[in-house]
Design goal:
It contains 19 helices and two strands. It has about 400 residues and is mainly alpha-helical.
Length: about 400
């Protein structure tokens, strides 16, 4: 270990300010590096020539202290903090110092936040890999913190793929240490995965539309994706010219203006608008999955009971097909007759068509499929995904006012 000459942090800041000021408007990053080398180059060379890590850690702490006096010089501050992290990271005893320097770097220089977050993940991974016994859980939670922070930076930078990779790592660590935050990580991962899938689909449809502007199907699907899945009506409005569905075109333009631009009837009309049965199924997810508690088993039971009730007038005739139950089947005829009479009476009273009401049992088959689909998605995602936000099943169950099963 070598003895390092100490320069007071205030003196360092004053010297740097003078030199940086004389540098004028040149390359600040390069000038900051030159100033740093002039102040600490000899010390850096000295600690690199010794195998012991103690002098590295000591110099790292000094650089971190000097950073307190360099807050008005961002380029020089960045160099100080990066070098402090480099020196402190050489030994486990300096890991926390290195992390402290990197946290300050990300707070002071936002454009370096992503790189700093990645380095913190690397350090926390080393600690987790080396931890044993009771310390492993604590180290795992710290690693999860770092991974989630890095995922935040990746999302803010628009790198959803990197965010997904980081969240999957956090998920694996959470399972390894049985973290209480695992459900939240799963929910966030589902949201990011959905956003990636949506972005990919949008890019594909934009490409198809660029190659063939007359492709009405691609245009309609692109508008739907932007409006419903990406929740970006302003972007969707850019592609409405050429839509064959005039109602959809008008509603997209109205949505792009925002609810404040419409009167109350207009807001009601916009709120009730659905373009297709596929959107109805997506919209039904939040109601059906909430009712079933995001449980596939409950969804299957509810779908089966609902379907059985709707088709019961027809099922009541099944006993007529067997010799031993034909007497019971006669009761089924009465049930079917009562159903037909009620249909005729209700449709006339409501001035609706008789035929659509008669085929309601058949339509319920589709309703049961939607119910099961919603339950399956809710179970797989661990909650209800609505307009890009995943609401965890635990929160939905806690706030449920009506319990079906």
């Amino acid at each position: 270990m070598v003895r390092i000459a100490s320069i007071h942090p205030v003196c360092v800041a004053l010297l740097a300010a003078v030199v940086m000021g004389d540098a004028g408007g040149g390359d600040e990053a390069a000038e900051a590096t030159r100033v740093f080398e002039s102040l600490y180059g000899t010390d850096l060379k000295a600690v690199r020539e010794t195998p012991a890590p103690q002098d590295d850690l000591e110099l790292g702490k000094r650089l971190l202290a000097a950073a307190d006096q360099a807050k008005g010089q961002p380029a020089f501050l960045a160099v100080l903090l990066e070098r402090a992290a480099d020196l402190a990271e050489v030994h486990p005893d300096g890991y926390e110092t290195a992390i402290g320097a990197l946290v300050r770097l990300s707070e002071a220089i936002p454009e370096k936040a992503g790189a700093a977050a990645g380095r913190i993940v690397g350090i926390r991974q080393k600690q987790f890999s080396a931890a044993r016994g009771a310390d492993r859980s604590k180290a795992g939670e710290a690693l999860i913190d770092a991974l989630l922070a890095a995922a935040d930076s990746a999302e803010n930078a628009g790198d959803l793929s990197d965010a997904e990779t980081l969240l999957r790592r956090a998920q694996r660590v959470g399972r390894s240490v049985r973290s209480d935050r695992l459900s939240g990580i799963d929910a966030r991962l589902s949201r990011v995965a959905h956003a990636i899938q949506t972005a990919t689909s949008i890019a594909q449809h934009k490409d198809r539309l660029a190659k063939d502007p007359a492709n009405h199907g691609a245009r309609a699907e692109l508008v739907r994706l932007l409006l419903v899945d990406a929740d970006d009506p302003a972007e969707a409005a850019k592609y409405v010219e050429g839509l064959e569905d005039e109602a959809m075109r008008a509603n997209v333009l109205a949505a792009a203006k925002g609810p404040e631009a419409a009167d109350e009837p207009g807001c009601m009309e916009l709120g009730e608008w659905y373009r297709s049965l596929g959107e109805v199924a997506r919209g039904a997810e939040k109601a059906y999955a909430s009712a079933s508690g995001c449980s596939l088993g409950r969804a299957l039971v509810l779908a089966g009971v609902s379907l059985a009730l709707e088709v019961s007038p027809v099922l009541a005739l099944v006993p007529l097909a067997f010799d031993g139950t034909r007497l019971v089947g006669c009761g089924g005829i009465a049930v079917l007759a009562a159903f037909l009479v009620s249909v005729v009476v209700m449709t006339r009273w409501g001035r609706a068509g008789v035929l659509p009401a008669l085929i309601a049992p058949a339509v319920m088959v589709l309703g049961a499929v939607i119910f099961v689909r919603a339950g399956l998605l809710g179970w797989w995602r661990g909650g209800v995904l609505w307009r890009g936000t995943l609401y965890p099943s635990a929160a939905l169950r806690a706030g449920r006012r009506v319990r079906l099963i």
